């Protein structure tokens, strides 16, 4: 019996010895494994030096002149902030739910790892949570895991532990929290607490409340599943769990938990999306300007607009822009309805098959199919039959319908587009920029890219030249239509049915009522070459046609260049270049550069001519083609202006000039082949002028805009008043009427 007992004891000891050796062996292998990870056999681990010098990829911010964040440029939407910007409740929420022993461990919490190991592995309790500390999570944020197989997960975990230990030796606990909150992902390419606070609550980190902080911290467990915009109820439950954890860790009282838990989420969601948000065309132009500025640094800097966290301070007035966009939506909705009704069932996008095919040829889809070897007929057949669910945008709301590519072309061809720009002529600041009706659908910017015939908005430049050439403002010109023999019988006519055969207009009357026949005769007096020189001296660099028809605005000019030309009238003959950016700072708020527009050194025309032209254009508003500013919209501001309508009603224009504003609006279709069905709808006074009138009405309601709405033009000198002191219209005398045949068109040679 004793023999048997000794043998069993000996056997047990052998087994225990084997188990012990096995455990020691496994522990040794584990140590070897950790050592192999540490020396980089499983992939490089950053050194302490590299960890201490890591740089965030930071979003660059775009601000309006009135200090509103209007957009960002980024690869990762991240805006780092300092520890002092973190409210105490935010820190408490994070520690309570993510790492209760944060201030006690040195990067790796062995106690938590053992707890998780026992509960998860031995007891199968998956609700026990993870054992990763905030420092380990920071390591994962800085060096994201690449592959997700079981072997790599173990390697990654060990790497993160090693990195965490190194981070704890380099940074203080506050610095680790700062780096963590600046790098952690909140989903949707949003990184860091500042970007998340702006996105979900439209506020800065330093201003977030206890409940807002708990909501954002609660998202970290599952950024999609607890997204408060997508799953508000789940997010609310998670937030309250965070609040309870804060109470359990003695960070808040039971009464606070009860009160906070009763609060709703109160989201104020803002998507800083390239296609969405306020002033998207302006932001795109700023982006291009920034890329040009960076390129001009000749390699002296390594700034990157998407990663360097630059702060770009623009000239845009947020409140003005917001009002302008609201007005644009209101007016263009009504105008689009009138436009479609005017064509009815005979609309070219419905009836003109050849036109639709011509437009289809311009699309990337058509060109791709053409490259594949398909004939025109085959391509059109393919584009007409590829029906699939598509989202069709309209002013009445977006609709999903089953449609082909040709259906889509037909739908979008009919939409009127617009460009609207407001500039302060005293300093060149661009206050409002609307490049089109929908940036996501129409990327083409009608402010800086589009060149369109400007119609009668060019006439003031013709008249300005004539006055500078010594033509008296009280010179009378016959409204009679003339056929010009040396211009292939070209015979410009006036709109309307008014009998003008015996009428003669002063220059002021001819301009204010936009009389075409007189504009051509004024051009003769001014000289085409002189007019082209004047246009250039006023800031229009694009080459204009050396033709008599330029008097009627057949030259194609960008809106921004036309605005620059009109600033000359507010500055006694000197134009100023419109400016988008006031200054650029780095992420530490150190100013890198400031921009300021200066008046052109050379005057295009005299102060006296400037006063004469302003008085003439004031007549356009008071009694001429823009009179509806007064009698329809009730505007009493001191305004000069000019309407414009191009041939076949393709383009509608209005230019408004005040002492502190140059405002230009254009309305038309992107497809040049289609115009308005009639002048009544398509004239500048109807299609373009309301965009300014409705906007100015809104500005007049707000005292904050008094600096722009209340100023008056300086009183013209006595000499200018005398020069304009004449009757607007003179009728031919008896004998002249006796020998003139109003039904026979006069012909002559153009001498301009």
From TrEMBL:
Residues 421-660 form the Penicillin-binding protein transpeptidase domain. PANTHER family: BINDING PROTEIN TRANSPEPTIDASE, PUTATIVE-RELATED, PENICILLIN-BINDING PROTEIN 1B. SUPFAM superfamilies: beta-lactamase/transpeptidase-like (SSF56601), Lysozyme-like (SSF53955). InterPro entries: Beta-lactam/transpept-like (IPR012338), Glyco_trans_51 (IPR001264), Glycosyltr_51/Transpeptidase (IPR050396), Lysozyme-like_dom_sf (IPR023346), PBP_transglycosylase (IPR036950), PCN-bd_Tpept (IPR001460). One of its GO terms (molecular function) is penicillin binding. This is Penicillin-binding protein 1A. One of its GO terms (cellular component) is plasma membrane. One of its GO terms (biological process) is peptidoglycan biosynthetic process. It catalyses: Preferential cleavage: (Ac)2-L-Lys-D-Ala-|-D-Ala. Also transpeptidation of peptidyl-alanyl moieties that are N-acyl substituents of D-alanine; [GlcNAc-(1->4)-Mur2Ac(oyl-L-Ala-gamma-D-Glu-L-Lys-D-Ala-D-Ala)](n)-di-trans,octa-cis-undecaprenyl diphosphate + beta-D-GlcNAc-(1->4)-Mur2Ac(oyl-L-Ala-gamma-D-Glu-L-Lys-D-Ala-D-Ala)-di-trans,octa-cis-undecaprenyl diphosphate = [GlcNAc-(1->4)-Mur2Ac(oyl-L-Ala-gamma-D-Glu-L-Lys-D-Ala-D-Ala)](n+1)-di-trans,octa-cis-undecaprenyl diphosphate + di-trans,octa-cis-undecaprenyl diphosphate + H(+). Residues 76-246 form the Glycosyl transferase family domain. In the C-terminal section; belongs to the transpeptidase family. It comes from the Bacteria. The lineage of its organism: Bacteria, Pseudomonadati, Bacteroidota, Flavobacteriia, Flavobacteriales. The chain crosses the membrane at residues 21-43. It is found in: Cell membrane. Keywords: Carboxypeptidase, Cell membrane, Cell shape, Cell wall biogenesis/degradation, Glycosyltransferase, Hydrolase, Membrane, Multifunctional enzyme, Peptidoglycan synthesis, Protease, Transferase, Transmembrane, Transmembrane helix.
């Amino acid at each position: 019996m004793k023999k048997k007992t000794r043998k069993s004891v000996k056997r047990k000891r052998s087994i225990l010895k084997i188990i012990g050796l096995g455990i020691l062996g496994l522990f040794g292998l584990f140590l070897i494994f950790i050592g192999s990870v540490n020396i980089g056999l499983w992939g490089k681990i950053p050194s302490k030096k590299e960890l201490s010098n890591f740089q965030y990829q930071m979003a660059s911010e775009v601000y309006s002149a009135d200090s509103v964040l209007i957009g960002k440029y980024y690869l990762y939407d991240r805006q780092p902030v300092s520890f002092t910007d973190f409210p105490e409740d935010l820190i408490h929420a994070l520690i309570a739910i993510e790492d209760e022993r944060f201030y006690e461990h040195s990067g790796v919490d062995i106690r938590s790892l053992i707890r998780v190991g026992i509960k998860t592995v031995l007891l199968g309790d998956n609700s026990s949570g993870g054992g990763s500390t905030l420092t380990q999570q920071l390591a994962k944020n800085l060096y994201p895991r690449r592959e997700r197989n079981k072997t790599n997960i173990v390697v990654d975990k060990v790497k993160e532990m090693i990195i965490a230990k190194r981070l704890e030796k380099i940074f203080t606990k506050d610095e680790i929290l700062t780096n963590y909150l600046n790098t952690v992902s909140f989903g949707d390419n949003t990184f860091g607490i500042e970007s998340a606070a702006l996105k979900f609550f439209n506020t800065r980190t330093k201003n977030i409340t206890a409940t807002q902080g708990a909501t954002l911290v609660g998202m970290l467990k599952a950024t999609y599943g607890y997204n408060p915009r997508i799953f508000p109820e789940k997010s609310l439950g998670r937030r309250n769990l965070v609040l309870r954890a804060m109470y359990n860790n003695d960070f808040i009282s039971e009464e606070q938990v009860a009160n906070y838990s009763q609060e709703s989420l109160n989201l104020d969601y803002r998507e800083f999306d390239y296609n969405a948000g306020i002033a998207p065309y302006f932001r795109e132009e700023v982006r291009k300007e920034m890329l040009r500025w960076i390129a001009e640094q000749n390699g002296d800097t390594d700034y990157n607009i998407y990663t360097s966290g630059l702060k770009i301070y623009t000239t845009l007035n947020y409140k003005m822009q917001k009002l302008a966009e609201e007005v644009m939506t209101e007016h263009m909705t009504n105008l689009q309805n009138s436009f479609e009704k005017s064509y009815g069932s005979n609309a070219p996008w419905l009836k003109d098959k050849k036109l639709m095919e011509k437009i289809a040829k311009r699309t990337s889809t058509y060109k791709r199919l053409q490259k594949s070897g398909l004939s025109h007929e085959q391509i059109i057949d393919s584009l007409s039959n590829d029906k699939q669910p598509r989202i069709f945008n309209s002013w009445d709301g977006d609709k999903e319908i089953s449609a082909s590519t040709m259906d889509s072309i037909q739908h979008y061809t009919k939409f009127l587009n617009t460009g609207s720009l407001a500039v302060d002529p005293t300093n060149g600041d661009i206050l409002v920029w609307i490049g089109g009706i929908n940036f996501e659908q129409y990327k083409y910017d009608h402010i800086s890219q589009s060149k369109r015939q400007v119609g009668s908005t060019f006439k003031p430049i013709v008249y300005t030249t004539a006055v500078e050439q010594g033509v008296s403002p009280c010179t009378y010109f016959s409204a009679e239509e003339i056929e010009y023999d040396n211009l292939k019988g070209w015979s410009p006519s006036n709109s309307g049915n008014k009998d003008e055969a015996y009428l003669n207009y002063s220059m002021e009357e001819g301009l204010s009522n936009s009389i075409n026949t007189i504009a051509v005769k004024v051009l003769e007096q001014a000289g085409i070459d002189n007019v082209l020189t004047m246009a250039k001296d006023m800031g229009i660099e694009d080459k204009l046609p050396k033709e008599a028809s330029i008097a009627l605005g057949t030259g194609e000019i960008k809106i921004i260049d036309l605005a620059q030309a009109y600033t000359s009238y507010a500055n006694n003959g000197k134009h100023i270049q419109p400016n988008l950016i006031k200054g650029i700072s780095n992420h530490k708020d150190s100013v890198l550069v400031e921009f300021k527009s200066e008046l052109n050194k050379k005057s295009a025309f005299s102060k006296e001519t400037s006063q004469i032209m302003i008085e003439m254009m004031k007549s356009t508003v008071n009694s001429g083609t823009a009179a509806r500013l007064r009698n329809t919209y009730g505007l009493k501001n001191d305004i000069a202006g000019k309407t414009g309508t191009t041939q076949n009603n393709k383009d509608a224009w209005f230019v408004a000039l005040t002492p502190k504003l140059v405002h230009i609006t254009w309305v038309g279709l992107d497809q040049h082949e289609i115009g308005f069905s009639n002048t009544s709808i398509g004239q500048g006074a109807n299609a373009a002028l309301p965009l300014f009138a409705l906007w100015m009405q809104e500005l007049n309601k707000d005292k904050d805009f008094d600096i722009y709405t209340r100023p008056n033009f300086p009183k013209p000198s006595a000499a200018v008043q005398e020069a304009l002191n004449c009757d607007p219209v003179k009728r031919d005398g008896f004998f002249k009427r006796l020998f003139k045949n109003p039904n026979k068109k006069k012909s002559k040679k153009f001498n301009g």
